[in-house]
Design a protein that fits this description.
Blueprint lengths: L24 E2 L7 E5 L45 E7 L5 H9 L2 E7 L4 E6 L4 H6 L4 E6 L31 H5 L2 H4 L10 E6 L19 E2 L18 H10 L15 E6 L10 H13 L4 E4 L14 H19 L3 E5 L12 E5 L6 E4 L15 E6 L18 E4 L7 E5 L3 E6 L1 H18 L5 H11 L28 H4 L10 E4 L3 E3 L4 E8 L10 E9 L5 E6 L5 E6 L9 E7 L8 E9 L6 E9 L1
Parallel strand pairs: 7-9, 7-10, 8-9, 10-11, 11-14, 14-15
Antiparallel strand pairs: 1-2, 2-17, 3-5, 3-6, 4-5, 12-13, 16-17, 18-26, 19-26, 20-25, 21-24, 21-26, 22-23, 22-25
Helix pairs in contact: 5-8, 6-7
Length: about 625
């Protein structure tokens, strides 16, 4: 599933803003995000997913097999109702005997990846998995779906080719790029064309004016259904998500539209989403990772989770096989020099303290499951994968972003509220999305810049340097955030810093002060919570951070301000009266450079209505 920006963890229907607001769309399964689309200078509009209509006729040629890691059984048989997909796992090497057993026990071999000992099998037999588990040499067998394999798997239709709209938009320094100092990093390097980055996603519009200069068709592919389809255009977008991600990584610095973090590296599309459903099954991810390893991708971006389970639990026979198959594929890619970067998810969920899941399986009827931390989000929580949480404008935790101590590795801008991440969309268009799906490609782009400067870096080197060069972010006034300023559950090692990653230097954050005392907020009342600052020389910075954690049953009642020691009032936020969301957990950036730092600062909270009350739980200031 996509990382809720276009799809993923959220099943909400599309929603529209007011007549003054851009239209918005909440994605289904990607790492949920908010979407606003714009044609070059035209009115905002909602686009249909790019690959869900106008598909090529069924007579299109069959997909080619991978020359190195997979192949198909003879025509893989004809589709039949009840056909399910399975991972059959054996020792890496020659899988001939296991493939023969698949055929002998009522299955067909759809693909096989001998280097990692994984066979993708199809069967309509209800006893297939149990029978294969008893075969000599078979280590694990698991169904990858709770629904039938689509008939399209046997003769895939090509995605449509969207007509292109030339843009009149010119490049500007966007907030997300300046927040991670990408605009300053470009003075050092814009990336090397020898660095290949894989976008494992819904596909990429390779003809987009901002992507075509950097698109690598030779190494692009569709891995939908679990085997490589190398036909020209098979990699194109069947939604909009992958094209947006690709632009954040490597939109060209060509004077048009937007600039990616690494605007001169090469991007390859590895489409792992299936058309129609838009789901990302395990065999698709396995195909994508093996492809990445065999085709020299230095880094891949993964803004999705592996369907149909939001979390896979090792004590379940099917899910245990999914974990092992994808783990092996990721380890294989890394052994070939490829680093995987993944989005953390958009459910505001503590990945370090899992309890329940009510959204899985998402390809049939979800059930309520009790979880432990042994159950993992894949590929996000696999060993070696860099897990990225999202910040909003100003480097506070994005309201939707998942978190978790020792799970989150690093943070990056994902957008929040009115400030989304602006990037490319199919058909020459551009638009805003918010989600950890948008955060992850910022880190992917920074990793690509690092390798451009030093091509000898290994995946382990890149992981280490991403951590060391991130800008430390303290926990906001939110008790769910545990850890230190240097490393915590919201931001991991901190927010990625492109300038520092390529050899530049940035100013570290200053001292932090907090007030953890609860203060009640009554109806139609104003309260102030103080923090006394001392030991800070000179004036406050132009980027003073005020982290706020308020528990309230209707935040539309609230008006927040920061009061300086001399009484100057700095408005933080006047929530819309119609905002019925509970609570406030945000970090605000205030230009307080005219104020003496030392003294008593106050968080002022006004409640302007009746019926709903709350508490200032805690708040902090970081200089």
């Amino acid at each position: 599933m996509l990382c809720p920006s276009l799809a993923r963890r959220d099943g909400s229907p599309p929603t529209r803003g007011s007549s003054e607001d851009p239209l918005t769309l909440i994605s289904r399964r990607l790492r949920p995000a908010t979407l606003a689309l714009a044609a070059a200078g035209a009115a905002l509009t909602i686009l249909a997913p790019a690959g869900l209509a106008g598909a090529a006729p069924a007579s299109a040629s069959a997909p080619a097999s991978s020359s190195t890691t997979s192949s198909t059984a003879s025509a893989s048989g004809a589709w039949a109702a009840g056909t399910r997909a399975y991972l059959v796992i054996t020792a890496p090497g020659d899988t001939t005997s296991v493939r023969s057993a698949v055929t002998d026990n009522g299955g067909t071999v759809f693909a096989h990846y001998d280097a990692i000992g994984v066979v993708v099998a199809h069967s309509a037999s209800a006893s297939f998995a149990a029978t294969m588990r008893g075969v000599s040499g078979v280590q694990q067998v698991g169904a990858t779906r709770t629904s039938d394999v689509p008939a399209d798997a046997y003769n895939p239709a090509l995605p449509s080719t969207p007509s292109q709209t030339p843009t009149t938009l010119t490049e500007t320094n966007r907030w997300d790029m300046t927040q991670i100092n990408a605009d300053k990093a470009w003075a050092v390097t814009t990336g090397s064309a020898t660095v290949k980055v894989g976008v494992l996603d819904t596909g990429v519009d390779d003809r987009h004016q901002d992507l075509a200069p950097n698109f690598n068709a030779a190494d692009s592919v569709s891995c939908a259904y679990g085997r490589p389809d190398t036909r020209a255009g098979a990699w194109r977008d069947v939604d909009t998500h992958g094209t947006h991600v690709a632009g954040t990584i490597a939109a060209a610095k060509n004077g048009k539209g937007v600039i990616g973090v690494a605007p001169n590296v090469k991007i390859s599309s590895v489409r792992i989403a299936e058309p129609g459903s838009g789901l990302f099954f395990a065999e698709n991810t396995i195909c994508g990772f093996v492809w990445a390893g065999d085709h020299g991708f230095k880094v891949t971006n993964n803004s999705y989770y592996t369907d149909p389970w939001m979390f896979n639990c090792p004590d379940d026979l099917d899910q245990g096989a999914i974990i092992e198959g994808v783990r092996r594929a990721q380890a294989y890619a890394e052994s070939k020099g490829s680093l995987q970067v993944a989005a953390a998810g958009n459910s505001d969920y503590d990945l370090a303290n899992k309890t329940t899941d009510t959204s899985s399986p998402n390809d049939s009827t979800p059930v309520r499951r009790t979880l432990t931390n042994a159950c993992i989000d894949i590929p996000t929580e696999l060993p070696g994968v860099v897990t990225v949480s999202a910040t909003g404008k100003g480097s506070g935790k994005a309201s939707y972003s998942n978190f978790g101590t020792d799970v989150i590795d690093i943070a990056a801008p994902g957008g929040d509220g009115a400030s989304g991440v602006y990037s490319t969309l199919p058909g020459g268009k551009y638009g805003n999305l918010s989600g950890t799906s948008m955060a992850s490609p910022h880190v992917t782009g920074v990793a690509a810049l690092m390798v451009s400067v030093n091509p000898s870096l290994t995946p382990a080197d890149i992981r280490s340097r991403l951590a060391a060069q991130a800008r430390d972010l303290p926990c906001p006034a939110d008790r769910r955030c545990t850890g230190t300023t240097a490393k915590n559950g919201f931001f991991g090692e901190g927010e990625t810093d492109a300038l520092k990653a390529v050899g530049g230097a940035t100013q570290p954050p200053g001292k932090s002060f907090q007030n953890l005392d609860d203060m009640a907020i009554a109806d139609n009342a104003t309260v102030e919570s103080p923090i006394t600052v001392s030991g800070v020389s000179g004036n406050a910075p132009a980027t003073l951070k005020a982290g706020v954690d308020i528990k309230h049953t209707y935040r539309g009642d609230l008006v927040l301000s920061l009061v300086a020691p001399d009484g100057t009032v700095y408005p933080l936020e006047d929530f819309a009266d119609s905002d019925g969301t509970d609570n406030v957990a945000k970090t605000y950036t205030v230009d307080a450079s005219a104020e003496t730092a030392n003294g008593t600062w106050k968080l002022r909270v006004r409640d302007i209505a009746t019926r709903d009350t709350g508490t200032i739980d805690s708040w902090n200031l970081t200089f």
